[in-house]
Q: What sequence folds into this?
């Protein structure tokens, strides 16, 4: 049996997907969710093969929900507006259904997914993700903390630090872990606010109080909280350029 | 600066009257002072002044397409001298050769008055030229003022139209999707929703003028919108509309209320996960219609909003264009749970 989860904040929007899925007896809807929080829980619990995901939803949107998953399932986006199409494909979407969609269009999406499923050898299009990603400004980061989901406004971030496959996000009070790469944040955070000053560090400029020499030719940044961040040579140069020194 | 409009007909009449008056005075003067016969006096005054009047008219017409400037002023001077000389010479030829070739007294008088006639003719033509220049200059000014006014008005109308028609595509497509879902299982409800959506859209399209509507009309239109949203979000969305009986007939710009409520609903629905209540209250206060829209929100997780958010920036701009005031739309937060949008519409006394 193939497991599917529907995530959409409008019951009627889910009902049409449910109706279309009736012609696929081997696909079972294991749960329907009203928002991203329920979505994360249901996906962790049921480990579905495919999810039908709306984008605009309460609290966290569909993309933010996907970011919270360590092993995201195949995604077919269902949304009313196509401003997100590019982003959807970056998120490894199988397909992107524009509401209202017909049964024919829906069937095509299922076919596409089934083809992709059988061609296991093909890894998810990582290349596409890395290269095509449009620098998109974000004003918050959503993280998982145990069973809870936390929304961190970016202005509360002090700095980010690389940590194996994860990134440590330091706010003034806390630290959060997120399975992402440094370059992901370097590209998606506003470049006027955040500067990658080292291979392993990105700092927020308004947190910076001082730049001081460390040893011969090396420098470190002092943040408001007292944290000391090492600067690489290029990082130091970049920081000086951004600050107009 | 606005100038009184004077019709061309009136100006022509004034011009002719002025010359008739001059002819009368001159005839009288020549007849009485120099003791010439009335016919001579009349013929003299009439012919000279008509010539000058014609020259003046020619001058006036040729100035129509000239812009004031130093070069044109110089050529105006030359032309006025040439025309004045022409008038005097032509007048002299007509009088001496054709009309009164035998009147010695008159011929002597004529010969003696060449200079004064020339000066008079030149002065008249110059005055006409100057007045014409000023006249055309102001007409041009007025035309360009009008053009600017028209342009500003057109730009304002266009902007108002755009701001009014900020119909959210999200709303439209999601509503159509709901209809599509209902069509399979509950066709009667689908039909009803098509009806509501059509009425709502018709109301949005039809009200594309800047006229004020009564609050009662606007609330009816709003109700259509709320009914549609309830089909989509009925499980979460409650709305309460409280209006003073007295405020029903107050006036407000068409399609102002719905975008504010739409903004509140979106804010409420996407910022919380539970049931929400949107409260809309209207009342009369200090000769202003005061509408408040309340929606719940979560201060801890609310997306940092810049300014008042798109929906409200458009409203703010519209109110500014209509009332030239920026203080009519205000927002506030209460206890980090309720977001209140207040709009005040001044009422004409």
A:
């Amino acid at each position: 049996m193939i497991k599917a989860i529907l995530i959409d904040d409008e019951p009627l929007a889910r009902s049409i997907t449910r109706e279309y899925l009736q012609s696929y007896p081997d696909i079972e809807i294991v749960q329907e969710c009203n928002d991203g929080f329920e979505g994360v829980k249901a996906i962790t619990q049921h480990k579905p093969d495919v999810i039908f995901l709306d984008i605009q939803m309460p609290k966290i949107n569909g993309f933010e929900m996907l970011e919270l998953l360590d092993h995201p399932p195949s995604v077919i986006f269902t949304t009313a507006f196509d401003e997100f199409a590019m982003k959807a494909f970056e998120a490894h979407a199988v397909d992107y259904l524009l509401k209202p969609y017909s049964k024919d269009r829906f069937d095509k999406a299922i076919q596409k997914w089934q083809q992709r499923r059988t061609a296991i050898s093909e890894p998810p299009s990582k290349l596409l993700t890395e290269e095509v990603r449009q620098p998109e400004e974000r004003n918050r980061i959503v993280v998982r903390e145990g069973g809870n989901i936390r929304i961190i406004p970016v202005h509360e971030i002090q700095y980010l630090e690389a940590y194996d496959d994860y990134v440590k996000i330091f706010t003034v009070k806390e630290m959060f872990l997120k399975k992402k790469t440094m370059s992901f944040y370097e590209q998606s955070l506003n470049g006027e606010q955040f500067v990658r000053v080292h291979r392993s560090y990105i700092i927020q400029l308004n947190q910076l109080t001082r730049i001081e020499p460390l040893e011969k030719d090396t420098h470190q940044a002092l943040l408001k909280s007292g944290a000391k961040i090492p600067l690489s040579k290029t990082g130091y140069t970049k920081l000086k350029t951004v600050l107009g020194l | 600066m606005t100038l009184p409009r004077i019709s061309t007909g009136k100006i022509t009449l004034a011009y002719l009257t002025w010359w008739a008056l001059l002819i009368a005075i001159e005839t009288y003067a020549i007849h009485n002072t120099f003791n010439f016969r009335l016919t001579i006096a009349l013929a003299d005054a009439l012919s000279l002044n008509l010539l000058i009047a014609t020259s003046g008219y020619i001058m006036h017409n040729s100035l129509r397409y000239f812009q004031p400037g130093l070069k044109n002023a110089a050529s105006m001077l030359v032309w006025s001298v040439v025309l004045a000389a022409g008038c005097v010479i032509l007048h002299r030829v007509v009088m001496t050769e054709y009309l009164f070739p035998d009147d010695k007294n008159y011929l002597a008088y004529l010969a003696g008055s060449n200079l004064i006639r020339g000066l008079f003719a030149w002065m008249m033509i110059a005055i006409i030229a100057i007045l014409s220049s000023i006249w055309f200059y102001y007409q041009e000014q007025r035309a360009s003022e009008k053009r600017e006014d028209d342009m500003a008005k057109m730009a304002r109308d266009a902007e108002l139209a755009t701001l009014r028609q900020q119909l959210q595509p999200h709303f439209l497509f999601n509503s159509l999707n709901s209809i599509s879902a209902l069509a399979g299982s509950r066709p009667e409800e689908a039909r009803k929703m098509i009806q509501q959506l059509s009425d709502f859209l018709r109301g949005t399209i039809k009200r594309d003028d800047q006229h004020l509507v009564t609050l009662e009309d606007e609330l009816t239109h709003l109700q259509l919108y709320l009914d549609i949203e309830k089909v989509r979000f009925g499980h979460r969305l409650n709305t309460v509309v409280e209006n003073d009986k007295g405020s029903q007939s107050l006036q407000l710009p068409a399609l102002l209320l719905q975008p504010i409520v739409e903004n509140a609903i979106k804010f409420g629905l996407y910022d919380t996960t539970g049931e929400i209540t949107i409260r809309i209250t209207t009342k009369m206060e200090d000769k202003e219609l005061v509408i408040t829209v309340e929606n719940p929100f979560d201060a801890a997780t609310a997306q940092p909003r810049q300014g008042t958010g798109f929906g409200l920036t458009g409203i703010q701009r519209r109110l500014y264009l209509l009332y030239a005031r920026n203080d009519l739309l205000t927002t506030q937060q209460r206890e980090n749970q309720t977001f209140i949008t207040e709009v005040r519409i001044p009422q004409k006394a």
Notes: The first helix of chain A runs from residue 11 to 21.
